[in-house]
Write a structure and sequence with these properties.
The complex is a heterodimer of chains A (195) and B (99). Chain A has 195 residues and is an all-alpha fold. Chain A contains seven helices and one strand. Classes of the chains: A mainly alpha (195), B alpha+beta (99). The interface between A and B is medium-sized, with 28 and 31 residues. Strand 1 of chain A pairs antiparallel with strand 1 (26-28) of chain B.
Amino acid sequence: MQQENFSPQQSIDLIQSMILKTKNTVADSSVFFLLWGWVVFIACLLQYFLKNIVHYQYHYYAWLMIIIGIAGSVYLGSQQDKKTKVKTYIDESIDHLWMSIGITYLALGLIFAKIGYENAFTFYILLYGIGCFVTGRLIKFTPLVWGGIGAWLLAILSAYLDYDSNILITAVSILISYIIPGYLLRMKYKKITTN
Amino acid sequence: MFNELDPILHSQLRLAVMSLLISVKEAEFTFLKEKTNATAGNLSVQINKLKEAGYIEVIKQFSNNYPQTICKVTKAGIDAFEIYVKALQTYMHPNNSGQ
């Protein structure tokens, strides 16, 4: 690929073929969905168990599991950076989206510490909806889009239910918006890399 | 009237590299090598020419103790690419070249 006397049509064809080669290049983010999906899912079930079955006073300690999620994200993020050969604008948009959602989780944590956690889950589920829907649209992956829509519907439902039910609603919402799409996304990338 | 084609871009490998970089934020040397099927030596020479022309930025760094070369297109590179594509259009559709 060195000759310089190629025709304008060949130039156009070359530009098109190269742009097509980058078109579907998006980093595999399924590992983050699975990590956070399982952390939150287990934390929900653990809190429900501690609160309603064991009747432990400090049932919310179950959410200390988030530390595993943060440490895991930092580790996996650094591993992915080492492996990444190309960064697209979509990758960058997704990074910024989840960074802003992460900051919003943190801000909400501080806000609920002041005003009370009674309706906290509703807002957390709404954020799952935004993150999954936008990511799904950006990477053109329908299960994430549907997961996001499902999370929004469950957020509305959670507003009509009590705190204990909301713990379980959150577990269901993370299952449909993170865990199931996460496994499907991983399968999709495995298929792409083996082909 | 045909517009002159930028000689820096009117070379298959350099044009391929620019076309890849124009659609991403940044790409590693190995990615460009894999997508263009070029040899490392030839690709290195062409990347250097694009860098000298100010069309791309080349960042050399270490990742996991291995040297890593990251390339990204510059504003001058985007402008040159757009002018090149417009010039190509005058060859493809000579009747519209006066517009």
